[in-house]
């Protein structure tokens, strides 16, 4: 991939969700909106390497996609009356700069798109796959890797989901009343996935995608205004606020990952931490037991409150993971609990839990399982085994920065063996 193509790919990952959301508002068909956005990307790949990247690439892509929509509507107007009316009565014919739309309405369009893709007419698997595709900009291959599924299976799932939404004429809007409550759990899950993809990218050259996290956090804050009595909304916002406070320290100036225990906590954003702790308090004051997002926020709060890594309250974190495992049973939660127990009571105790997870089928291709096992083995001076685990983890990850980190840790094991 050339330098120009890498730049265009980075721009696409930043702008694609806004582009698809804005186009969905125009054509009321999420599948068609994605096709139009992809058409604009193809044109950019053809033109930008020669003409250069425009000053406002998002506006350029939107204007280009809008023109493609006009052409399509004109061609199809005799076949489809809905499109004919849209072509004549919407603003699709205008050629003004799209910056104002990108900064204004389209922000709300992203929330509408999330509620649309979280309609109960879709299965949970379809909602997740469609979200990762439309809102996070992942390729079908990357989603398949995350699901440990065949690419063809994921592709069919996404196609069927878009077709189902279009056939059912699901409205492009934020619902109210009971319908809002019915979709809340799915919407929170989607925003959580969106944030996590930005916080630790599934694939690509960068370990983090801060703009994706910022967008997820912005949407979460809007949702907290819409549903102030929902404790888990505030819990998720608290989690995202606190996690976002670490962005300046999560990578070096050259983009290399910095692990939590090695980060300079003096550089953590105290305003975001304060906002996160306040959101967690709002969740608690609603008088309901902590749900999965509030529990994760409480775990993040433990890290945020520790001035130094050595002062972290690991026994409390282990207890919070125990509570999380009861409300959200998951092998991944159990893996995190193993890390907390290792930090609180010693690596041997954590390794015992991790070894039990080795037989878990859903974690077979999950790179963090051998990564955690390698770390615990390293702390127990079992360097040969640790090196094998780090190399195995490196072979499983799709993120280049993470692969480099894991191979570096494997090399450290080789050095430690000689000492």
TrEMBL record:
Residues 114-165 form the RNA polymerase sigma factor 70 region 4 type domain. Residues 21-77 form the RNA polymerase sigma-70 region domain. Residues 183-283 form the DUF6596 domain. InterPro entries: DUF6596, RNA_pol_sigma-70_dom, RNA_pol_sigma70_r2, RNA_pol_sigma70_r4_t2, RNA_pol_sigma_r2, RNA_pol_sigma_r3/r4-like, WH-like_DNA-bd_sf. It comes from the Bacteria. PANTHER family: BLL0085 PROTEIN, BLL6612 PROTEIN-RELATED. This is RNA polymerase sigma factor. It comes from Paenibacillus dokdonensis. The lineage of its organism: Bacteria, Bacillati, Bacillota, Bacilli, Bacillales.
